[in-house]
Amino acid sequence: MIQFKQYFVPVQIQETTFCREGTRTMDARRAQDILRHIINDEDYGAAMLDKISVTESIEVLTKMLPDCVATAQNDNNINDAGFFSQMIHNYYPLILDKIKNAEHLWVVYSDNTGYPYMIDGDLFVLYDYANHAELEKKLNTAGYQVALESVTPTDFRNEVAHMYRNGYEKIRFTDGKGEPFVVAKEDLYSFEDFFNEEYMTNPGLQRAMIEFFQEFRKNTAADAGREEILKKREDAMIRTMVHAEYMVPCIKEETEDMVEISHPFIDLTDRIQDKEEGERVIAIPAFTDGFEMDKCYEGHHENMLYQYDELVNLVEELGASGVIINCLGISYYMKLELMHKINM
């Protein structure tokens, strides 16, 4: 059983004083029972927290305890306000552990990108499935075409790892109806839990590509406002591309006299519509990190790192049509002419 560090013993508290009516969704009797454990138990309700649901735990942290703090402050009761503020501080890591070990969470995925739906850099996770249809309907009506994917604790940990790669900042845990419980990814797991300092990531570029294509592939009519958003996101993506570093797969063959390096090509002729009649479209694959590269070339190729201007020179030197970034992720093809244009 987890126990809180004991900071001080609270003064006698009148249970009926706290938790204003109308600000919580759980039954009032249930709320008072939980509050009694927090006030009276030697462990300040830690054992109780182990037994209640994730939904109730989040409600205790985000609604009940802040409500108690506000009521105590309104009554000028400094001791009680301090006690409940300390309980918020103590409960926060315990509730995060409870979330991390939850049997079921549901990540909101975008069918437009194949990645988790992103809003202002954040990821959506549903912790209570009861109102899932309402959330899906709201996003689908807006044109984003989402689907919920159930994740185990191991799956959820992997999702947080990908947040570091893909530039997501926080998770908005939601029950599908109320205000989300927002948690920074660093509060759940650190970068070092997944990668070492030598692991190459491009979170800025990954995020820019996800944000652009999520909006670009949105199933809704064009209007001036949306065109402005698309232009802004495309400009941000291109700026990030120009300043990014890329992994390019290669095969190295060594002889006594030299090292010969060759690069694979991908034939995109059948996939690219904007081309001259009879033109073959041959692209050099480039990747934002090792995970994206391993989707295509795991164990078969080495890689070389290229700055953007070096990548332009490589495409030109090899006589390729252009470059395709993350061909099995959010793929983006740029022909050589465009590569030169945005590099000016």
From TrEMBL:
<protein>
    <submittedName>
        <fullName>SseB family protein</fullName>
    </submittedName>
</protein>
